[in-house]
Amino acid sequence: MPRRSPTRLIAAGATVVVALGLTAGCSKSAGDRAATKPLPQPTAFAECARCHRVEPGVHDVGPSLWGLSERRAGSALGYSFSPALRGAGFTWDRQRLAVFLRDPHKTLPGTRMLYPGLEDAKEAESVADYVLSLR
Ligand code: HEC
Could you tell me which residues come within 8 angstroms of residue 102 by beta carbon, excluding any fewer than 6 positions away? Predict the structure, then answer.
């Protein structure tokens, strides 16, 4: 009898782990599902559209913004980035993007993105969310 308790404890522990795994799995897949459908384009994106396209691999003055999520900065194939962006050494996420869009030149000195940045923090966040949903 006493030899069964540890087994039961382990079984209980495993159940908790599985339950946690399922919960984490659910929230992740919900996020992925949401991300497969691009968010509606915010009005402020009109400024970006002067230089950027959102179709995969279609570069304009600036690189295509498709598939930016979790991509290393300055790594889009077929676009010639500045050394500043090529050597940035980070991966794009919401935080990085929202900060960059407020003031590209302060965030990445030497970038060739000739754009002063979005003044409004909320606007920068909604543009970042939209761009990261393009995948
Ligand atoms: C006047 C043209 C211009 C405008 C306007 C502009 N960009 Fe850019 N953008 C560029 C150029 C050029 C680059 C490449 C910069 C470099 O190589 O240093 C770039 C680079 C980027 C990158 C880095 C891409 C990568 O693959 O690492 C992001 C992200 C970006 N722009 C987003 C935006 C967003 C969002 C807006 C609107 C708020 C915007 N840009 C407005 C020209 C522009």
Answer: 117, 118, 119, 121, 124
**Ligand 1 within 6 A of CB of 72:** no
The best mutation among 41, 52, 79 to test binding of ligand 1, ranked by most ligand atoms within 8 Å of the C-beta, falls on 52
Alpha carbon of 89 to ligand 1 centroid (Å): 16
**Low-confidence spans in the chain with pLDDT less than 50:** 9-10, 12-31, 33, 35
Q: What is the pLDDT of residues 42-73, one digit of tens each?
A: 999 999 999 999 999 999 999 999 999 989 99
Tokens 């302060």, located at residue? 106
Residue 131 Cβ inside 6 Å of ligand 1? The answer reads: yes
Query: Could you tell me which of 110, 47, 117 has the C-alpha nearest to residue 81?
Result: 110
Task: Say how far apart CA 104 and CA 48 lie, in whole Å.
Answer: 12
> What's residue 97's pLDDT?
97
